[in-house]
């Protein structure tokens, strides 16, 4: 059972960013805007990415917990809060896509939903905590030498690309950010594979 959890956590760490990347690729390549199959499939992939990141963050924090338990817990907690917010955000977008009839309707409904300060704070702003937590875990792992420095740097570059692209509405930047993030996190997933079963 422990071996399965270790393997699943390692695989999740490697695949999670690419779930997001696949979703953004579909979203950016749609020939028609609005609530179509591309919108729905992309958001299903986003939710899959979130689900994969849950064990990935837990595994990442356990690598650090042996040496820096406080930093591991804070980074994990922030990332998990952010993942919860991302789940809500993607679920809302997916649901609105099912209710809207066309692109103007989708835009109008999303505008109405996110016009609420409570929803904006709860889902869109709080979601940033995921990247803050992941950033913190990455910095600590670099300092402790848990992962190769180049992998940590790529992870940080990926995070900056995703967050920067989100604020500037540049989908291609977000897509490339997740690809770079995936390359950076791959050695972390491999490190999780190498851990003794009792430690993961």
Distinctive features:
200 residues
How is the topology of this model organized?
Layout lengths: L1 H27 L8 H29 L3 H31 L3 H12 L2 H9 L2 H17 L4 H20 L2 H24 L6
What does this structure look like?
The chain has 200 residues and is mainly α. The chain has one domain. The chain contains eight helices and no strands. Helix 1 packs antiparallel against helix 2 (37-65), helix 3 runs antiparallel to helix 6 and helix 6 runs antiparallel to helix 7. The longest helix has 31 residues, at 69-99. The chain is elongated.
Query: What does the average pLDDT come to?
Result: 91
Hey, roughly how much beta strand do the residues contain?
under 5%
Outline type: elongated
Domain unit count: 1
Main beta sheet: none
Number of strands: 0
Output the radius of gyration.
17 Å
Low-confidence stretches: none
Q: What count of helical segments does DSSP give?
A: 8
**Class based on secondary structure composition and strand pairing:** mainly alpha
- The ordered H/E elements are HHHHHHHH
Distance between the termini: 11 Å
Fraction of residues in helices?
over 70%
């Amino acid at each position: 059972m422990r071996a399965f959890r270790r393997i699943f956590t390692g695989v999740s760490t490697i695949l999670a960013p690419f779930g997001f990347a696949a979703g953004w690729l579909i979203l950016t390549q749609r020939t028609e805007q609005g609530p179509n199959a591309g919108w729905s499939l992309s958001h299903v992939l986003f939710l899959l990415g979130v689900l994969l990141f849950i064990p990935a963050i837990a595994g990442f924090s356990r690598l650090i917990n042996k040496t820096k338990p406080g930093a591991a817990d804070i980074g994990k907690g922030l990332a998990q809060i952010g993942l919860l917010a991302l789940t809500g955000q993607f679920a809302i977008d997916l649901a609105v896509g099912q209710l809207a009839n066309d692109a103007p309707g989708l835009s109008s409904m999303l505008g109405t939903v996110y016009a609420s300060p409570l929803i904006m704070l709860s889902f869109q702003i709080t979601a940033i905590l995921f990247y803050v937590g992941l950033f913190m875990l990455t910095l600590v792992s670099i300092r402790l030498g848990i992962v190769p420095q180049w992998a940590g740097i790529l992870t940080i570059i990926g995070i900056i690309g995703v967050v920067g692209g989100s604020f500037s509405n540049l989908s291609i930047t977000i897509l490339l950010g997740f690809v770079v993030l995936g390359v950076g996190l791959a050695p972390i997933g491999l490190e999780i594979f190498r851990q003794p079963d009792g430690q993961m």
